[in-house]
Specification:
The structure is a single chain. By secondary structure, the chain is an alpha+beta fold. It has two domains: 200 residues, no CATH class; 186 residues, no CATH class. It has 15 helices and twelve strands. Strands 1, 3, 4, 5, 6, 7, 8, 9, 11 and 12 form a ten-stranded mixed β-sheet that branches. Strand 7 and strand 8 form a beta hairpin. Helix 1 crosses helix 12 and helix 10 packs antiparallel against helix 12.
């Protein structure tokens, strides 16, 4: 039998007057660890939830990697590139690439009963995957762009429809201002609701043949080639591989550069980076609080058990072995607190994931509820690191044991 472990199990605060202080300190230390783990757990799953949700929405709107004309953004309407470069098949075969689609943008306006709204019309063809928009459809159906003639259907957000007082099935006029004002008439096929406020209000999906004609482009010219990645695909690695392919392109292919989604929406990804910093601060603060309370709790136990420490030394137990006794005792408190904190955190995360109990303003936070995502490996790492750090912290109060003199403590008792 492990003698250190046996003694540690016997060191418990009693209900009597003498053990009252250590019992209370144990409870406070355990509660502190539980609360710290709860806060750190929730901070991590909420941060991961925000990053996962917002990256998924941003990528759903416009892909994750783009081929664009040098010096232009993805909505370029002045300097088109070929949507069918000679190397496109090689790009589609890059590991992690799901699809590469032609996209042509045109800026225009929609007119409602009492308002006018500037809109970016995103032109796509029948091969473009609409799975993302299907996930967020709230009314009507997805447009069909496979017709022989340019489709007159348009897909807009519910937020834009409410702003312009439109309904699903309405026929609406779109105005495009250039050397002359051109008008296109569309029928609203369906409404989606992604909750990314600025994009919802300013983008509509139409047949690419309309945007090409409005821009005065040929049948193979586009604003950008939008590349979607498979789940788990690494944008940086994909970009590096595509750049290598482009360097080897024939001279008659259009000049293009490779860009990532984080450079298209820098304000969103800067906000996510700031969120990471906030999470790091929370983790540090919670560990400091839990560590301070563990030191306090263990010191109280040591002070109350001074006579026992002296007796163990008199019986020949080494200081290191006595330290192990109290580290074991502290470990019991930490493990109990960690189990309680993790259980409560898992329950809260499940409730929020299932019922979205805590709402948010999407105009400020990009989503309408607090998203949560439990990354099991991160949670295990959090618990292992927390426990390891607590063990190191508990070494500090056990240094008191080395100063206990058996003759004095036994006399005092």
């Amino acid at each position: 039998m492990n003698l250190n472990l046996f003694i540690a199990k016997k060191i418990k605060g009693k209900s009597g007057e003498k053990g009252k202080l250590s019992s209370s300190s144990n409870t406070i230390a355990c509660a502190s660890v539980a609360i710290s783990i709860l806060v750190m757990f929730m901070a991590m799953v909420i941060s991961d939830g925000f990053k996962r949700e917002i990256k998924e929405i941003s990528a759903g709107y416009s892909g994750e990697v783009f081929l664009v004309a040098p010096g232009q953004d993805i909505t370029n309407q002045i300097y088109p590139i070929s949507g069918r470069p000679s190397y496109i098949d090689k790009v589609k075969k890059v590991k992690g690439v799901k699809s590469a689609n032609e996209v042509a943008y045109s800026a225009g306006m929609l007119k409602g009963d009492e308002s006018v709204q500037g809109i970016l019309f995103k032109g796509v063809d029948s091969t473009y995957s609409l799975d993302f928009f299907a996930k967020y459809m709230v009314e009507g159906e997805l447009p069909d762009f496979s017709t022989r003639n340019p489709s007159g259907q348009i897909l807009i957000s519910r937020r834009l429809a409410n702003l312009m007082n439109y309904k699903c099935g309405d026929r609406i006029n779109a105005y495009f201002v250039g050397e002359s004002v051109r008008v296109r008439r569309f029928t609203i096929s369906g409404l989606y609701d992604v909750q990314l406020d600025q994009m919802d209000k300013t983008m509509a999906l139409v047949d690419i043949r309309h945007t090409r004609r409005i821009n005065g482009w040929g049948n193979d010219q586009v604003s950008n080639i939008e590349i979607s990645l498979k789940k788990g695909g690494d944008p940086r690695r994909v970009c590096t591989e595509i750049e290598r392919i482009i360097l080897e392109r024939p001279a008659d292919d259009d000049s293009v550069i490779v860009s990532q989604i984080r450079y298209i929406y820098p304000h969103i990804f800067d906000w996510l980076d700031l969120l990471n910093m906030n999470v790091l601060i929370v983790l540090i603060l919670m560990m400091v609080v839990a560590g301070f309370n563990m030191i306090s709790g263990l010191l109280i136990i040591l002070f109350e058990k001074t006579s026992m420490i002296g007796l163990l030394k008199a019986l020949g137990m080494r200081t290191r072995e006595i330290c192990k006794v109290f580290i074991y005792r502290g470990s019991f408190i930490v493990i109990k607190g960690m189990v309680i904190g993790n259980v409560i955190a898992i329950i809260i995360a499940l409730l929020q994931w299932k019922w979205h109990l805590i709402p948010l303003d999407p105009s400020n936070y990009f989503v309408d509820h607090i998203p949560v995502y439990v990354n099991l490996s991160k949670i295990i790492l959090l618990n292992v690191c927390s426990f390891g750090l607590m063990l190191l912290i508990m070494v500090v109060p056990t240094l008191f044991i080395a100063r206990v003199q058996p003759d004095k403590t036994i006399k005092a008792s």
